[in-house]
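Researcher: I'd like a candidate sequence for this fold, 274 residues long. If you have to choose between options at a position, lean toward the conservative one.
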């Protein structure tokens, strides 16, 4: 009974995943525990959405590899999946648009279930018409799942970087969908929310998840260690490490990619404000 009243949540993480690390996976587990501890939510799915190549971040290797590594990393997870829609778009896609896309996918999936259920329910009603009223609880459908953006505190703090995010996108993400933010060394997420009027206004929709074990595994650190021939075992799943080593994916050469190229959001917003 109580389980049915909980709001279903799908967590969406957008990022480079260059490459996916154990911390990316842990971020999902921490967020799920945190939301479910409130007693209000049931986290039903996690989605990793690697950014497309057009994001042009320094050292970003091809999306097909980043997607494949994320798939290998989540192979044993019962609830974290990888979606390549964003990575396949020719242009860089704003995160608010990615969230909108996944939200509408969720709603249509839910609608399909509803339609199938309506047919079943009509048939079943004919059989159950004379049955005890208590059995009608069986027809209650839980609401559509909510989609929340999952990120680290560095992404939250990047909201204040000029020309990186559109204010209306931030408002839409925190106001309409919601944000789950995992603390990260060097960032003070609570303070940041308190100092921003728009974030403070939507603070009930911003869930800050504290990672008590300081864990600053970063993809940058992994790439740097790989270039230097240092071990990165246990910082990322073994399958991902094998995938990288089999293809020599990260090198001094790959790190030079997009050097001196302006990051897609800066390019877009700087142009638009001229
Ligand atoms: N150690 C960490 N703690 C909390 N959040 C993290 C951590 N590592 C990554 N994240 C979050 O995971 C998401 C995707 O991250 P991303 O792919 O940019 O990884 P990254 O390690 O920050 O990458 P890079 O080092 O290349 O900048 C982001 O929301 C980021 O904040
Ligand atoms: N305006 C925006 O929507 C905006 C700006 C900067 C980064 N992002 C996203 O945040 C993520 C950040 O990834 P990195 O931390 O690897 O740069 C990416 O998915 C990127 O698309 C979105």
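Model: Candidate sequence:
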């Amino acid at each position: 009974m109580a389980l049915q009243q909980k709001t279903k949540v799908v967590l969406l993480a957008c990022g480079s995943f260059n490459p996916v690390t154990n911390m990316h996976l842990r971020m999902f587990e921490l967020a799920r525990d945190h939301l479910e501890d409130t007693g209000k939510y049931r986290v039903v799915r996690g989605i990793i959405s690697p950014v497309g190549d057009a994001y042009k971040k320094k050292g970003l290797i091809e999306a097909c590899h980043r997607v494949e590594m994320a798939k290998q990393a989540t192979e044993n997870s019962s609830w974290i999946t990888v979606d390549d829609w964003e990575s396949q778009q020719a242009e860089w896609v704003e995160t608010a648009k990615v969230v909108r896309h996944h939200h509408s996918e969720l709603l249509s999936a839910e609608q399909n279930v509803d339609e199938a259920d309506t047919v079943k329910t009509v048939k079943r009603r004919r059989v159950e018409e004379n049955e005890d009223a208590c059995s009608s609880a069986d027809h209650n459908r839980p609401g559509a799942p909510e989609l929340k953006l999952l990120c680290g505190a560095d992404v939250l703090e990047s909201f204040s970087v000029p020309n990186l995010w559109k204010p209306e996108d931030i408002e839409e993400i925190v106001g309409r969908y919601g944000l789950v933010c995992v603390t990260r060394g060097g960032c003070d997420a609570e303070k940041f929310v308190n100092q921003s009027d728009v974030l403070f206004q939507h603070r009930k929709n911003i869930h800050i998840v504290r990672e008590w074990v300081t864990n600053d595994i970063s993809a940058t650190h992994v790439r740097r260690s790989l270039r230097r021939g240092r071990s990165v075992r246990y910082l990322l799943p073994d399958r991902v490490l094998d995938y990288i080593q089999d293809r020599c994916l990260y090198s001094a050469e790959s790190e030079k990619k997009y050097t001196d190229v302006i990051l897609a959001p800066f390019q877009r917003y700087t142009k638009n404000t001229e």
